[in-house]
């Protein structure tokens, strides 16, 4: 059906032409024929009748046929794009007899979809169970885990990996591992893994960390690999410290040993020279003493290294205190935990043994059988206080306790070694506000904070895996021929200080979400406020609600855009009225040397191409047409608009397919045609 404005123009033109032609004919007849009073009304009616008839007929057709036809067109579009939409207005006019048939078609279509959905749910019940078990395992697995396909695209990552790469926008399903860990050695190792699944080890730098990678080939259909990551920074630093200590002690040890041997040999050959013998005996004594000190130093290095090899683990303070109370029962010592429990990061066995020893010595020294213990949060530390009624201990006694061994063994670590392992020390002080004193030990705090982690399942769980990504074409396949459903699409939106981008208006908010394998990933998003380094006009604030105070502490565009470019990766950009948002990021990119030359899909142009006869292709109009909902408060926010644009694109895809638009190349050609038509 032709556009409404075209039909309206034709109708008004035809009506006006007939009326003017009738008036001209009437004037000519009136001047040519001598019409009397009874003939003139009849001639007037006959001359103006065609124009009036077309005017009335056009109004009737618009009301009874053309408007119902447009409604019917919208209903068909909604039925294809959003078949489960429930609120539809009825047909009227001459198409109203079709309403029962349309209801029957719609009811049958929805009934078929319901049965298909039910069959799919029943058939996928076992898969859902396996998925839940897998996700439960992933949640408790402490080691970061990545699984990629044969083309090194991420199929799975667990929460530990998400925590490790929390500041990396390149972490996401379907993204290349090389975007997350850009090391040629990793890509080569993944391509050369043995098929029998035997592991390969790799050490990689990652900013300020060292990651030890264990790589295994998976026997799955996708032929991918599993990457287990371990942060080895602390271990390597400890290893280096151990090597430095040995490098310092061993040459000195060799020197004193050689000097001792030479002195002993010389002494054996001296006769009848008592003075020289005494000098060599003195030298042997001095060397023996120095050698003894060096052996003691070496022993301490060995003892401390034994502890350093024990990793610090997340521990709930009440669990530590309960275990300590059980150990003290045999000594008839009562330990009472007070205060609010917290998470701490400690070597549990070593710290328990040290606290046990210190409490036994406290009990003997102070002659007390009851102590309190409390964990206090400090600045990135937790203070463990052993509390008693009385005065603080003197420093001399604490110095003696630092040298006490934990066990009755020659190589037993000392209290000082455990303190060093936790970067801690001992001191005693008076507790403020009461007549009590304490022995205080600062220990590392945990990043979990002061409350246990909530293990309640999320209502909407993050998406950590999608093995169907392995079925997508290889990354080196030309994007132009890639089906639209198989594209990685980054749907983005910006908010700016105004509409005059070339005149100085700038981005104040940029957000994006990702569509992978035809699905909008619920938890995969980029959302960042930007400091425009200029004032936000009130007229712009009235639209997006952002004021200067909201962006004062936000990073500038030259910090945000590189992170956004990393998030986009090799994906296809999508936006609604993309010309504006694309200009905003390209102008910002020019200032920091970034290029945004990837393909861009515009949902505004695609909608115009699909429904050229319908009016209203703005985001609000299309959201209403396809029953897409903005959550409260998200309209005119960058992330809210980006998410609805993504849902709009997914609604348009089946209608594009119905018109033969299957690949990215087809969609770009369609957009170009719409732009050319719009400029005419």
Automatic annotation (TrEMBL):
Transmembrane segments: 7-29, 41-61
Exonuclease domain boundaries: 488-658
PANTHER family: DNA POLYMERASE III SUBUNIT EPSILON
PAS domain residues: 132-199
Keywords: Exonuclease, Hydrolase, Membrane, Nuclease, Nucleotidyltransferase, Transferase, Transmembrane, Transmembrane helix
Entry-linked InterPro entries: DnaQ (IPR006054), PAS (IPR000014), PAS-like_dom_sf (IPR035965), PAS_4 (IPR013656), Ribonucl_H (IPR013520), RNaseH-like_sf (IPR012337), RNaseH_sf (IPR036397)
Identification of the protein by name: DNA-directed DNA polymerase
An annotated GO cellular component: cytosol
Catalytic activity, EC: 2.7.7.7
Pfam families in the record: PAS_4, RNase_T
Biological classification of the source: Bacteria, Pseudomonadati, Pseudomonadota, Gammaproteobacteria, Oceanospirillales
GO molecular function, one term: 3'-5' exonuclease activity
CDD domains, A to Z: DEDDh
Function recorded in the entry: DNA polymerase III is a complex, multichain enzyme responsible for most of the replicative synthesis in bacteria. The epsilon subunit contain the editing function and is a proofreading 3'-5' exonuclease.
GO BP term, example: DNA replication proofreading
Gene3D superfamilies associated with the record: PAS domain, Ribonuclease H-like superfamily/Ribonuclease H
Catalytic activity from the UniProt record: DNA(n) + a 2'-deoxyribonucleoside 5'-triphosphate = DNA(n+1) + diphosphate
Top EC group: transferase
Organism, scientific name: Marinobacterium lacunae
Subunit structure: DNA polymerase III contains a core (composed of alpha, epsilon and theta chains) that associates with a tau subunit. This core dimerizes to form the POLIII' complex. PolIII' associates with the gamma complex (composed of gamma, delta, delta', psi and chi chains) and with the beta chain to form the complete DNA polymerase III complex.
């Amino acid at each position: 059906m032709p556009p409404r404005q075209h039909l309206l123009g034709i109708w008004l033109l035809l009506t006006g032409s007939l009326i003017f032609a009738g008036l001209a004919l009437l004037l000519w007849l009136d001047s040519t024929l001598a019409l009397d009073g009874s003939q003139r009304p009849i001639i007037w009616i006959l001359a103006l009748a065609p124009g009036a008839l077309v005017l009335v007929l056009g109004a009737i057709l618009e009301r009874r046929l053309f408007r119902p036809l447009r409604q019917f067109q919208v209903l068909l579009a909604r039925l294809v794009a959003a078949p489960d939409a429930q609120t539809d207005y009825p047909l009227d006019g001459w198409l109203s007899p079709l309403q029962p048939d349309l209801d029957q078609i719609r009811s049958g279509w929805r009934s078929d979809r319901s049965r298909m959905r039910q069959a799919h749910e029943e058939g996928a019940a076992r898969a859902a169970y396996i998925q839940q078990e897998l996700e439960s395992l992933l949640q408790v697995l402490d080691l970061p885990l990545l699984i990629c396909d044969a083309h090194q695209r991420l199929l799975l990552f667990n929460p530990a990996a998400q925590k490790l790469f929390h500041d990396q926008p390149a972490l996401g399903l379907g993204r290349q591992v090389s975007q997350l860990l850009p090391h040629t050695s990793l890509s080569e190792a993944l391509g050369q893994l043995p098929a029998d699944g035997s592991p390969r080890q790799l050490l990689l730098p990652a900013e300020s960390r060292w990651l030890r990678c264990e790589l295994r080939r998976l026997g799955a259909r996708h032929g991918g690999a599993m990457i287990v990551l371990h942060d080895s920074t602390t271990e390597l630093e400890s290893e280096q410290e151990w090597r430095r200590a040995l490098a310092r002690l061993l040459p000195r040890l060799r020197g004193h040993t050689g000097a001792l041997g030479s002195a002993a040999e010389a002494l054996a050959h001296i006769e009848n020279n008592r003075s020289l013998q005494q000098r060599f005996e003195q030298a042997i004594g001095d060397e023996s003493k120095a050698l003894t000190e060096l052996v003691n130093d070496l022993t301490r290095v060995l003892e401390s290294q034994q502890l350093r090899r024990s990793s610090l683990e997340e521990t709930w303070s009440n669990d530590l205190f309960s275990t300590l109370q059980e150990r003290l029962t045999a000594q008839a010592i009562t330990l009472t935990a007070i205060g609010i429990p917290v998470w701490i990061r400690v070597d549990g066995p070593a710290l328990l043994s040290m606290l046990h020893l210190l409490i036994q010595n406290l009990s003997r020294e102070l002659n007390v059988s009851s102590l309190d213990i409390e964990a206090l949060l400090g600045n990135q530390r937790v203070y463990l206080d052993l509390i008693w009624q009385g005065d603080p201990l003197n420093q001399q006694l604490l110095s003696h306790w630092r040298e006490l061994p934990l066990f009755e063994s020659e190589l037993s670590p000392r209290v000082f070694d455990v303190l060093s392992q936790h970067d801690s020390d001992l001191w005693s002080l008076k507790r403020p506000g009461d007549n009590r004193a304490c022995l205080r030990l600062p220990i590392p705090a945990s990043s979990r904070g002061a409350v246990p982690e909530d293990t309640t399942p999320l209502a909407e769980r993050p998406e950590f895996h999608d093995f169907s990504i392995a079925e997508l074409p290889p990354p080196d396949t030309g994007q132009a021929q890639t089906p639209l459903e198989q594209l990685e699409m980054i749907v983005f939106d910006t908010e700016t200080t105004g509409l005059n981008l070339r005149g100085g208006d700038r981005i104040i908010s940029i957000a994006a979400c990702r569509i992978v394998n035809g699905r909008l990933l619920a938890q995969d998003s980029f959302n960042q406020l930007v400091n425009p380094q200029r004032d936000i006009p009130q007229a712009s604030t009235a639209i997006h609600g952002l004021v200067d105070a909201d962006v004062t502490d936000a990073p500038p565009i030259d910090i945000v855009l590189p992170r956004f470019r990393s998030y986009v990766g090799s994906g296809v950009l999508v936006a609604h009225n993309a010309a504006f948002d694309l200009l905003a990021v390209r102008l910002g990119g020019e200032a920091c040397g970034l290029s945004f030359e990837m393909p861009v899909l515009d949902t505004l142009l695609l909608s115009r191409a699909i429904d050229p006869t319908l009016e209203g292709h703005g985001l609000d109009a299309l959201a209403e047409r396809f029953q897409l909902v903005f959550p409260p408060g998200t309209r005119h926010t960058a992330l809210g608009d980006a998410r609805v644009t993504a849902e709009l694109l997914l609604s348009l895809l089946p209608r594009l397919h119905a018109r033969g638009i299957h690949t990215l190349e087809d969609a770009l050609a369609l957009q170009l045609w719409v732009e050319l038509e719009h400029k005419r």
